[in-house]
Automatic annotation (TrEMBL):
InterPro entries: Homeodomain-like_sf (IPR009057), HTH-type_TetR-like_transc_reg (IPR050109), HTH_TetR (IPR001647). This is HTH tetR-type domain-containing protein. The keyword Repeat does not apply. It comes from the Bacteria. The keyword Transcription regulation applies. Keywords: DNA-binding, Transcription, Transcription regulation. PANTHER family: HTH-TYPE TRANSCRIPTIONAL REGULATOR BETI, HTH-TYPE TRANSCRIPTIONAL REGULATOR RUTR. Residues 39-58 bind DNA. Residues 16-76 form the HTH tetR-type domain. One of its GO terms (molecular function) is transcription cis-regulatory region binding.
Length: 221
């Protein structure tokens, strides 16, 4: 390797390391006091770099927040269709999705308890949360689709998405003094009950597999 190529490689490594330190600083500060109260000067101090360096790497909040989300999400429980695709009964599929979703809620809770409120004032946060909610609604529709010939009622999907949203999960704990486990059980019961009511209104549909009866008796996460 030529000396010049070696120097360029070391420079790229140093740049990547600096970027990671800034993102880690943002993740820590956003967890501690939210996005609005965290200034770029705070990031510079926490990361041990100059204020200009922070701006060079992340000129806007819109550039910084996705990097922060990516770092936190890298260790989060994954919520994908692969969780329920091997299952047939709509209740079982929804139950499997909820188990992973509640674990993901718990992982993101230290940041989302700020973000769900700050999103009203921070467009970049609002856009990210909206994308997450759209993805959740799409997953919910896919999970329960077998019970409705592939076309679940839109209003039912909207109800489930609202019920299982992380903001509902957080509010249930803060306003009802429930533990996370109790909140999970209550939301699980509500979601399965709603699903069964809609399934009962569509008696012509074939419901393959077995019911997730145990899911209404408590949380297993």
């Amino acid at each position: 390797m030529s000396p010049r190529r070696y120097r360029l490689g070391r420079r790229a490594e140093a740049k990547a390391d600096t970027r990671e330190r800034i993102v880690a600083a943002a993740v820590a500060l956003h967890r501690k006091k939210g996005t609005i109260a965290t200034r770029y000067a705070d990031l510079a101090r926490q990361a041990g770099v100059s204020l200009q360096t922070v701006h060079n790497h992340f000129p806007t909040l819109g550039a910084l927040l996705p990097a922060c989300t990516g770092m936190v999400a890298a260790t989060a429980p994954q919520v994908t269709a692969a969780l329920f695709e091997p299952l047939q009964a709509p209740e079982d599929r929804l139950d499997a999705l909820m188990t992973a979703l509640f674990a993901q809620h718990a992982h993101f809770e230290p940041w989302m308890r700020w973000a769900v409120h700050e999103a009203r004032a921070v467009p970049e946060l609002e856009a990210g949360i909206r994308r997450w909610r759209d993805d959740l609604a799409a997953l919910l529709a896919k999970a329960v689709a077998p019970g409705f010939a592939g076309k679940p009622p839109a209003e039912m999907v909207a109800l489930l998405a609202t019920l299982l949203d992380i903001e509902s999960w957080l509010r249930l704990q803060s306003q009802s003094a429930l533990s996370a486990k109790a909140a999970n059980a209550a939301l699980r019961h509500g979601a399965i009950t709603w699903l069964r009511q809609y399934l009962a209104a569509a008696p012509s549909q074939v419901r393959p597999g077995t019911r997730a009866a145990a899911s209404t008796r408590g949380d297993r996460s």
